[in-house]
Amino acid sequence: MRQIILMSAAAALVLAGCSSTPETDSGYHDWPTPNTVVEGPVPGSADDFKSIGDRVYFDLNKYNIKTNGDATIKAQAAWLKKWPSVGVVVEGHADERGTVEYNLALGERRATSVKRALVANGVDGSRVEVVSYGKEHPEVNGHNEAAWSKNRRAVTTIR
Q: What value does the CA radius of gyration of the chain take, rounded to a whole number of Å?
């Protein structure tokens, strides 16, 4: 008889545990389902950075940032402030005209101009590295102004 009473009490406890009272929120309902498709680049990724604009173009033999480059610099600075653990490399480039030495120096000045602008917009300078490729890595092959204008650039890339 005692065993029947104990088994009845155990069954009552089990059934009481299955009551319809809501449990505390575990937060699991907020997790995405395994087959959720995310549109666009992953936030904070190199593709995400490229989507805001990674190039600033320059005039012939110049390294000052043109007005249309200001918007790109501001967008890059805002993105970098949002992702403070990300470092970047600013690559300076030149078109094919001029000596190797001249174009390396010009590419360095262009990359440094972009770095200074990023720092002026609130980015910590230690996160920005500068490198010059001069005329060694053209974006567009060609021997005309259309090609040269695309090769006179600074490209900011994620480290």
A: 29
Catalogue all structural domains in the chain, each as residue range(s) with its CATH number: 49-156 (3.30.1330.60)
Residue among 43, 27, 147 at smallest CA distance from 95 = 147
Chain centroid to CA 39: how far?
A: 16
Where is 11: in which H helix or E strand?
helix 2-17
Show Cβ contacts of residue 32 under 8 Å, excluding neighbours closer than 6 positions. none
- The answer for residues whose C-beta is within 8 angstroms of residue 50's C-beta and 6 or more apart is 41
Structure tokens, 6: 């104990």
Cα–Cα distance measured from residue 107 to residue 78, given in angstroms and rounded to the nearest whole number: 24
Q: What is the pTM for the complete model shown?
A: 0.75
Q: Does residue 20 register a pLDDT over 70?
A: no
